[in-house]
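Morning F.,

Quick status update on the modeling queue. The single chain you submitted on Monday has been processed. Sequence for confirmation:
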Amino acid sequence: MPKKPLRPCSHQACPNLTSERYCDEHAKQEAKRYEKYQRDPETRKRYGWAWKRIRDRYIKAHPLCEMCQESGKLTPAQEVHHIKPLSMGGNHDEENLMALCSSCHSTITAREGGRWK
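Structure tokens below.
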């Protein structure tokens, strides 16, 4: 199946073409901007360096998306999901984590009313 044509980066006056919303350079800038100005300070505290180490260790131990595996597909995991969100009393324990691909994680987050609510 053919891929979608590349489109211009959404960053103002950027001439780069990309298959995502932003080119690699501006995607990093946009992520930093989101962290600094839009993410709640309490959330920033919960997702610090300790979380990054836990996430990296969990992905290494669970390299495939757990939801895709249930339906018989083998998709690399890219994100770690909290089954019970931290905002609802969840924690970083392994029993509360799930390795997911971006698509499955977005589906769950949208269903639970996360970032896109």
